[in-house]
Structures are given as C-alpha cells and as structure tokens.
Amino acid sequence: MSKIKSLFIIAITLFISACNTIYVPPVNDYQPKNQPKVALVIDVSDKLTHTHIGTTIFNNFTKQYEVDVKMKQHIFETLKHKLKEGANADVVLLDKTLSNKRASSGFVFIKDKQWQFNPSLEAERKELTAKGIDVVISITEAQTLVDMYCTQYGCTNFYAEGHGLYTRSFFGLDNYHAAASYEVSAEFISQPIDMGVMESMRDLNSMYGRLTKLDLEDPADHKALDKAFFKPVQTGLTGYFENLGSIINKYLNGEFETSKKK
Questions:
Q1: In whole angstroms, what separates CA 128 from the centre of its chain?
Q2: Smallest Cα–Cα separation from 34: which of 82, 71, 77, 84?
Q3: Which UniProt keywords apply (predicted)?
Q4: Is residue 185 within 8 Å of residue 176, measured between CB atoms?
Q5: pLDDT by residue for the chain (262 residues), tens digit each?
Q6: Which of 88, 86, 46 is nearest to 67 (CA)?
Q7: Which of 11, 49, 76, 169 could staple 162 via S-S, CB 3.0–4.6 A?
C-alpha cells in the first residue's frame, strides 16, 4: 500500500470518527423504576433480503426470501424477553398509528447542551405517557450503510437493502454477514433522554456494528438460496436484538454513558 493511499485512508477514518463525535449531556435525577413500561414500534418485513455485492456492479443484485420465522413477532418476543429479564420491564407492542401524527421517534433532542423534549411532538408524548409508557423504541427496516472501500481516489459505499443476508464477492472470494439493516430509535419520554446518542448504542448501530460475520459454505447459486441457508442469518439478527436489549437494560437501570465530547 502506497504512503499516499495509507494517509488517505487514515484521513477518511478520522473524518468518519469526527462525524460520529457528539456531546452527550449528563443524565441527572434519573430514578430507575421497578417495572418501566416500554413500547416497541416495529416496522419490518417478514421476508429477509439478500443483498449481494459482486466484483463489478454487473454482479450486484437484491432478492427477498420467505422464511419460516415471522420477523416482526420474533423481534418483539426477543426484546420483550431480554428487557423483562434484565430490567423487569413491561413491554408492549405499540401500533404506530396510535398518535394522530403517527410519531414513534424524535421526542427528544439536545439543545444548548441539554436534554429537551421536542415541542412539536408534545401532544403525542403526553398521549403515550398517559398510558404509563416510559420508553419508546422504534425499529424500522431501512437501507443502511454496511461497508466501505476506500482508495486514494475516494470511497465506494455498499448498502444492505433490508434486514437479512449481506454477501460480498470479490474475484471468487465470498464473505457472508447477517445484516441488521434497521434505523433504531430509543428514547425515554417520561424524562428527556435519547439513548440513541450514547456510545454503546452508536457502536451497535455503526456501519460494522450492524453486521454479524457468518461461516457458511458457498452455495451452488447465490441467486437461488434455500430456507436452510437463512437459519444462521436469523440467529445473527437475534443476536443483534439481544445485544440491543442488553444495552437498553443498562440504561433502564440507570447506567448511562455520557460524554463531554464537543
């Protein structure tokens, strides 16, 4: 690797790190509840998406597969069990149409280095807190950045088009990952705290935090996979949500990661 190329990649890495730096205000006067009520809003497909990136763009493709697991229900049950186990949380599935504006995230933001509620969603927040809800977690399947290849000429970004399998082939060498391709929001709405800006959550939802490397045998045809091929993919996605639950449990128990980064 040339010196110029090495310096360029280092510069890109530092730039990405700088973009991810955020000031997180301290959390004051938070008192953990014996049984916090957590509402989940889950907007995902029950199908799993296979996103394949080949040696050239002509080898790229995206395909969806039916699987035996109902993913929305599976995600709910996984998080419900984890949050009950770790924080004695009462977990409910929230219909995203409950509020007039269908708000499921964006209740909290940081302004002037302080936690604040979003005044434009105050009616929706009060509607939810009136039902005893303390925390809203929103999980939306979305195209997400999962890989990046940089040279001295610039960077090429690779995206997973949905939750499921991400494969990268380069001159016959294949790599397989379970891709947790989600936008995740987790906010306290009884007290203004955005868990999404804290370090562990940002790491989990970073470019590589979404991926679980899989040790799979190369299929005869990448475009014709059977259901059995997706079993380890489902296991990888389950692991992602178990990790998400473990992180949120810490916050529910008052173990916050705040920083003084500016």
A1: 23
A2: 84
A3: Signal
A4: no
A5: 444 444 444 444 444 444 456 789 999 889 999 999 999 999 999 999 999 998 888 889 999 999 989 999 999 999 999 999 999 999 999 875 454 445 678 999 999 999 999 999 999 999 999 999 999 999 999 999 998 888 888 898 999 999 999 999 887 789 999 999 999 999 999 999 999 999 999 999 999 999 999 999 999 898 999 999 999 999 999 999 999 999 999 999 999 986 544 3
A6: 46
A7: 49
The 3-class secondary structure across the chain, one letter per residue, is CCHHHHHHHHHHHHHHHHHCCCCECCCCCCCCCCCCEEEEEEECCCCEEEEEECCCHHHCEEEEECCCCCHHHHHHHHHHHHHHHHHCCEEEECCCCCCCCCCCCCCEEEECCEEEECHHHHHHHHHHHCCCCCEEEEEEECCEEEEEEEECCEEEEEEECCCEEEEEEECCEEEEEEECCEEEEEEECCCCEEHHHCHHHHHHCCCCCCEEEECCCCCCCCCCCCHHHHHHHHHHHHHHHHHHHHHHHHHHCCCCCCECCC
Buried b (16+ CB within 10 A) or exposed e, 227-244: eebbebbbebbbebbebb
What's the full length of the chain, in residues? Answer: 262
CB 210 within 8 A of CB 179: yes
Domain segments of the chain: what residues?
Answer: 37-253
d(CA 211, CA 213): 6
Tokens (6 digits) for 239: 């692991």
Strand partners, 116: 109
* Total-model pTM: 0.87
